[in-house]
Amino acid sequence: MVGSPRRQRGRLIDSDTSLRVALLCYRGNPRCGGQGVYARHLSRALVAAGHEVTVFAGQPYPELDAGVSFEAVPSLDLYRREDAFRTPRLREIASFIDLVELGTMWSGGFGEPRTFSHRAQREIEPRRDDFDIIHDNHGLGRGLLKLIERGWPVVASVHHPVSIDRAVDLAHAENLRRSFVIKRWYGFAEMQHRVARRIQRLITVSQFAKRDVIDEIGADPQRVAVVPLGVDGTLWCPRPSVARVPGRIMTTSSADVPLKGLAFLLEALAKLRTELDEAHLVVVGQPRPDGPATAAIERFGLSGAVEFVGGDSDDRLVERYAEASVAAVPSLYEGFSLPAVEAMACGVPLVTTTGGALPEVVGKSGEAAISVAPADPGSLAAALRELLSDPAQARRLGEAGRARALRRFTWERVASETIDQYRTVLATAPC
After folding, report:
1. Do 141 and 110 share a domain, yes or no?
2. In terms of Cα–Cα distance, which of 387, 323, 321, 320 is closest to 352?
3. Which of 64, 168, 360, 407 has the most other CB atoms within 10 Å of its CB?
4. What is the C-alpha separation between 173 and 234, in angstroms, rounded?
5. What is the DSSP letter of 77?
6. Does any domain span residue 145?
7. Region 74-79: what's the mean pLDDT?
8. pLDDT band at 135 (very low <50, low <70, confident <90, very high)
9. Span 339-348, mean pLDDT?
10. pTM recorded for the entire structure
11. Does one domain contain both 295 and 208?
């Protein structure tokens, strides 16, 4: 913590000073991917705590609350949902950074973390009197190094190392060609690791994720802090007026990402439906027509038993949780799992795996959720069957889950602990 006041770019910074934060978010999607959700709720909580926040974000732009400033940092938006992997018109190419972004896509890579960081660096660097600290939200692009070299204090959130996603995707690759495509797509991982090792303070979301950040990235353990994510318990809450739909299971999943374990949940559903005809699944996420989720539905004969939804407002998602008899998080690995916390806050009985940090989030099996081993459809089916056929236990777990979420995971707590990390960096910043 800060002792005596320090002078930071012309003004005194002490433990009571209101901080001016530049929060960087290379993708601000408010509905999936987590980055936009984190940026919205953290910025709102920081402002509520008396600080000034400006969010710098690329497309899709985030939804932000009153009091939070916003600066658009447009990319070529090559992965927009309605026109993914599009070829931009010639007049859209206005800089060398644009050429790098386009060339990376054409060669099979993902360039947004790198190119966003350079665009953001150019926007922020002339504004040395406007901000006390920069907080990068899991972009970790090279442009951050230029800011660090010029004396800017920088903190970065690393929700988990992307190299873990790469390893899981490679383990599920069908052939050598697919392995090559995956390696090329994740080419930015090494850049992120190099940049992360240079950042003054890394914030991650669980003790499990901290170990992975240290082991995978090679980060200095003394520079890695744990600040769990939060939930707005006034929004994500039970809806007693909404009737639960018998047999309904709900999950939030990037449908074709192997790490999320949807294929195992679909197999578990097929096993479950041999005993419970009414069992069916609502997936918050969209699959590719030729992706593994679509293939699994056909293979297990689940046509009509699985519904994919997307684009819902938060209010509609809360309503969907209220309609669900059980929620499931079948992930092979989670650095935290905001969907698990949101389900608990809504009072929905929950089944999760023990993948990654999930035991830190939900506690011991039977306390606030039932936990099973990852990649085990039989155990997943048994746990779902247990809750669907035992209303008393389901109700008890739902109530315990909400109590745990409100006790341990709030955005006010996230903001307070994040501010502590800002002040730790500022206490050692050059005067």
Report:
1. yes
2. 387
3. 64
4. 42
5. -
6. yes
7. 96
8. very high
9. 97
10. 0.90
11. no
